């Protein structure tokens, strides 16, 4: 009988005897998982899911804010570049002064074009632009966009 027990104990596969581990594909040979490990896995999954959802929510919220900030910063620098060389020659170096000057320039152009004389000058300039072969298409398209977004 002692010989039968020795045969049973020596019938373990060689790979399993060397590793001392169990075969994960054979449920009969794997040890039963403890309730703590399954709870830990569930908690890790819930935390990972919660973290990734909150991270994506942050990305969704911050993306439009970052794009708006970037475009606004670029636009201020772009418009500031029109009058900044004038102020540099005068020895004045204040960031945004060219932007404020540009806003005032646009305002005064609006005041001028609202007058009778300004409207006449504007219509002559518009006629000249409409006579140019390629420029007339760009002007008419931009005028349509401007009319679509204008409040009045």
TrEMBL record:
Superkingdom of origin organism: Eukaryota
Keyword tags: Membrane, Transmembrane, Transmembrane helix
Any single Gene Ontology cellular-component annotation: Golgi apparatus
Comp. bias regions, Polar residues: 10-22
Transmembrane segments: 55-76, 96-122
Ranges where the record places region Disordered: 1-39
Keyword Ligase: no
Protein name (database record): Protein LIKE COV 2-like
